[in-house]
Amino acid sequence: MKKEPLHRLRALPHRARPRIARRPRLPRDAGMSTAEYAVGTVAAAGLAAVLYQVVTSDTVSSALRGLVERALDAPL
Question: What are phi and psi of 65, to 5 degrees?
Fold first, then answer.
């Protein structure tokens, strides 16, 4: 097989180029794997549990209650 100069190969349509001139296609990383999803889910659940504990604590609950009471007692 006669080798063509590279500038001539680039001028041809993609399908018409010889197989030798094509680069092999490597698999691309298309997203997260199952293990990454599992770690992300566990982290999100842990954060949700911590936030739930904080919001339902007596200190935060009384502060929110006081804020709502002040907002409702405000003059119009």
Answer: -65, -45
Separation between Cα atoms, residue 34 and residue 56, nearest integer Å: 33
Q: How large a percentage of the chain has pLDDT more than 70?
A: 57
- Structural domain spans, the chain: 32-76
Taking only the tens place, the pLDDT of each residue in 53-69 is: 998 999 998 999 999 99
41 in Cβ contact with 49 (< 8 Å): no
Contact 38, 55 (CB under 8 A): no
Burial letters 13-22, b for 16+ CB under 10 A, else e = eeeeeeeeee
In terms of Cβ atoms closer than 10 Å to its own Cβ (0-12, 13-18, 19+), residue 9 is middle
